[in-house]
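This section describes the prediction task in plain terms. A model, or a person checking by hand, is given the sequence of a single protein chain and must write out its three-dimensional structure as a string of tokens. No templates, partner chains or ligands are provided. The sample shown here is typical of the held-out split.
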Amino acid sequence: MSPSPPSSLPSSLPSSLPSTSPSSPPSGAGLSGAGLSGAGPSGAGPSGAGPSGVAARLFLPLIALCTAVTAANIYLAAPLLPLIAHDMGSTPSAVAWLASVAQLGYAAGLLFFAPLGDSVNRRRLVAVLSLVATAALLVAAASAGTGALAGAVLVASAATVVPQLLVPLVAERAPADRRARHVAAVIAGLFTGVVAARVLGGLAGQAFGWRAVFVGAAVLTAVLGLATAYILPVERRQRQGPLFAGLVAIPGVVRRSPDLWRACVRQAGMYGAWSALWTSLALLLAGDDGYGMTTAAAGLFGLFGLAASVVAPLAGGLVDRFGAAKVVRSAYALAALSVPLFWLGGQAMAALCAAAVLVHAALVASHVANQTLALTTTSAPATANTAYVVSGFAGGALASALAGPAFGHWGWGGVCAVAGAWLVLGWTATAVRPRAR
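The expected answer:
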């Protein structure tokens, strides 16, 4: 499995995977039985029919591409903060809160929209959300002030949750002994998008301006979102109960599953530490008190994020072999080691590079383990996945919001302190195993 999601997913997710979920078809039915192949998009069976031919073969690569674009949209502003600040007549640290707005928006979108994947027509939902995200990104590109930009980023991030509507399907259809590896394939696409946002976003922003980057993201979102909606199976769903019944059910699902609760809290701690460091990194690299790099040069630093795409398939194999708990413990140890290296990296580039590799390896290993656990620990995988991802992004958004002021008051050392605190909170809060209620 290579770091590139389009080439890795088809090889790691066969077109016919046995069912492992109580809610999925009989064991002889795989993705084809779920309606991912068969009749064309206009055809429909009792439970819906999917595309055939070229469209069916493109289904898994499109999941990977949409995942990458989603991640890129969320982190689009991070490498562009110096350019946005200059254009808005402000300082980079004063606009750093835009990064946390994007994460909060994505968390809100997951909270409200991801559970709908079990109760509404996913083709229509994916298409509508893609168009809303496209419009919001175009508004962001035309924004004249930080307030309007923040509002547009919030809406765009909330609407760009398409992959999380489809991830539970991947986990449900995967063989039990290879489930983590299949989840890891999708996660590799997500982190490839994070790298693309920092590297390509920084380069394009330096060459064409930050507004052009948002326009380009809008085009990609529209094309990939609508293409994915087109090849999804036609569904004849009869929604029962309130529209947001899945949202209401989240607290109860978490209370009844100690393993899900632990996965949520630990990933919030891990993601918060990574987010504080990674969203503030441009301030260190491009700042006059830091390394004084151009936006394009600072963006190239994101290439270290490719470590995550490489580690994802390895982490999936380790989870399948040794279990999620051991992988999460090892990931936290790696993250704890990266924090002092990041602090040293404020003065030594070699330490900063080593820390970037370690923190990405730690984050993706923890993510693969915790998300696999979240998707398999309850009988409501879509609701559990929503709780898990929202927890992670909420933790990341709060840490990012604190990292900006910390950098303004105490410099890079303040950012490292925020990251270290988040790791301590994430681990100690789950040291005692809660009882199911």
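For orientation: Residues 100 and 397 are 4 Å apart (CA to CA).
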